[in-house]
Design goal:
With 280 residues, the protein is of the alpha+beta class. It has six helices and ten strands; from the N terminus they run ββαβαββαβααβαβββ.
Amino acid sequence: MRAKETRCPNARGFYAVSAATGAALAIPCKAWGCPHCVRMRRATVAYMIEAGVCRAQARGEKVRFLTVTSPGGYALSTRELYESFNRLRTTLRKSGELEEYLAVVELQERDGGAPHLHIIATGEYIPQRRLSALASSAGFGPIADIRAVRGTGPRSAGMYLVKSLAQYATKANAGALAERVKSEGNGKATRVRPVRCSRGWYPGGMKAAQKHALQLMGGAKEANDPGPWFMVSRDPNGNIHTLSRPKPVDMDDQPEAEERPQGPATMPEGREAMTTVRAA
């Protein structure tokens, strides 16, 4: 079997093979902490942010950028962070102040790695004082910020927003988050999700966004292969083992490897966003 290999250092010998053309593609690990796979993750997050903002504005909806933080002197655990966000999200959704959203976790270098949550969302206007009070009631700290997002051009502050949020999806931040989650789970490997979004922010979520981002970057030639595809594995001796019958195979459904944080990485330049941030 002659396969198109991946540069992923953590690939585990799984391949997708087309029954129609014989094309074989190595399946990368797709871990957030992988120096290769995280570049696509980062590009995908940037695309999800930009596309979500553009779609919301095309519908005539207001888009806002919110930040909520850990309480002063105390770093929330990952579980506490998402539990607090679930409480805050439920309250804001009931009042119509939060509709669709994409949230990204940032671990601070100071304060013991205290996590912050950055949220870009649609919904009714939220006064900063009210957001601060609701965030405190939900379990966050009283320091909260909210700004409006408006479109102007590729060199705007909105481009900084897209790059900043996408930066938190790099393996440096994701790797640190993986280590934090693992320590909180008593050393057990746990799936890390630095980015979460509602179903309506980007239909199909990160899986669909990654396919679209690949198409825009000219890297989805295999998507035109009619298939059907089937999965095989290669053992250490080079022997091939068929894992499934020929059928439509979604390569994004393959299991992810354990996170292996390995330091900072750079992302190839992607599309430029057309948003800007102003005070709400």
